Amino acid sequence: MRKDVQGSTIALNVTNLKKLWRVKLSEDDLLKLFRSQNPIVQAKPEWIVSYVNSCFNSSDLVVQLEIRDNTLSVEMVKPSSEIKVKLTFTLEEQDSSEFFREITNPMVAVINQLVEQRSKLLNLVKSKDLELAEYRLEGANISRKNVETDEVIEKEFFNNCTTEFIDRIRVDQTVSDLVLPQDLAEIYSEATRIRTIDNQVEPSILPAGGAEKESLSPNKTEHKRPLGSSVIVQVPRVKQRKKNFNL
């Protein structure tokens, strides 16, 4: 479930990763809905809007879902609230183009970001390994053995990650929750605001083995500098000096 606020309009999106349901409410619509479902609660509009926003951000929010034909009923109750308030939203099922815009395209954007981050981190780790190797050639020693690390072997690292993933999905093959850290959540949210046109999205086949692949969204040309040299120069023994690093 994701809430999106644009101006005075609140959009509530719910998905089971197979279908997408949505409702859009203006501030007036939200006030009418709240007052019709909670007639004994007399409150100012500012309090109502603030309360509804707090419900979406609450960790103890209880949500009940019920699918009815092409609609989804979402009932929300906040047990910790001093005032007992019930809110029920009726969401309409969206078509495939909206599912692509709200779910598929943002997921592709997040995956692309993760792939780019992985590449940058691996290059950075390789550069650090080269840097440490050069220090050792100059005679440096690490005084704290508990922070000493082995060289990262890219193929071995990926093989271990793949094995861990396969073992994990053997236990639970259904993934229904999508919990993103703040930086990826921002990317996901921004991607949902990109207006896409179905006939402009061509299907692409992902090649195997690191071949160059097409992307569903345009990428900016990026000029990258190598993060480190792959050549280590052996320092002559007469110039070597003992170093100790307190990490």
From TrEMBL:
Keywords associated with the record: DNA damage, DNA repair, DNA-binding, Nucleus
Major site of localization recorded for this protein: nucleus
Domain XLF-like N-terminal: 10-92
Pfam families per UniProt: XLF
Subcellular location field: Nucleus
Biased composition (Basic and acidic residues): 211-225
Xref: InterPro entries: NHEJ_factor (IPR052287), XLF-like_N (IPR015381), XRCC4-like_N_sf (IPR038051)
DNA damage listed as a keyword: yes
Record region (Disordered): 206-229
Family: Belongs to the XRCC4-XLF family. XLF subfamily.
Protein name per the record: Non-homologous end-joining factor 1
